[in-house]
Amino acid sequence: MATLAENLNINWRCKHTWRQASINTLWCLLGCSIGDMGTILFFQLTGIPWPTTAIMILAIINGLITSIILETIILSRQMPLPIAFKTACGMSLISMIAMEAAMNIVDVWLTGGAKLTLWVLPFMWLAGFLAPLPYNYWRLKALGKACH
Fold first, then answer.
1. Which of 27, 68, 84, 115 sits in a 20 to 30 Å window from 38, CA-based?
2. DSSP 139
3. What is the pLDDT of residues 12-71, one digit of tens each?
């Protein structure tokens, strides 16, 4: 079994791995964004007076759920549905949580709360993409495991 130092001492210049990690991260971003932004938009449109922190926690949970659902659908083309669901649940929660946290921190930082506006979306997506990307690369390169 490789040591931590060996796992961290990988080739960080592999274009193929960066490409695959980027594709995996984009799929995760799509899944997480559906639940996360759907939750924020729901509270924004309904005006239900929840604290920003509570909305963001619920948005993160919903983002994780929709990401798992999307991944299950994608994997079900390659394996039976129960195995696809189990695999999707076993995907890297670290990656998804980092993505969700980055998107929500950027949203609160730029808008002052749980608010979606067209101008903030690209910044949220960029943060959500970049936050887990090095981890996803490392996971592919060092462990041979895809996060998505």
1. 84
2. I
3. 999 999 999 999 899 999 999 999 999 999 999 999 999 999 999 999 999 999 999 998
Give 142's DSSP letter.
I
- Does some domain include residue 2? no
Torsion over CA: 118, 123, 127, 130 (sign): positive
**Domain enclosing residue 38, as ranges:** 15-143
Q: Determine the Cα–Cα distance for residues 6 and 2; give it in Å rounded to an integer.
A: 6
Token pair for 68:
């798992």
Q: Whole-model pTM above 0.90? A: no
pLDDT at 7 over 80: no
Give the residue among 68, 74, 73 at the shortest CA–CA distance from 88: 68
Other Cβ atoms less than 10 A from the Cβ of 54: the count is 11
Give the phi and the psi of residue 51 in degrees, each rounded to 5.
-65, 145
Whether 55 is covered by a domain: the verdict is yes
Number of structural domains found in the chain: 1
Whether residue 8 is contained in a domain is answered as no
Residues whose CB falls within 8 Å of the CB of residue 45, separated by 6 or more in sequence, listed in order: none
Of 129, 57, 56, 53, nearest to 98 by C-alpha is 129
Note the pLDDT of residue 144.
Answer: 73
Is 105 inside any structural domain?
A: yes
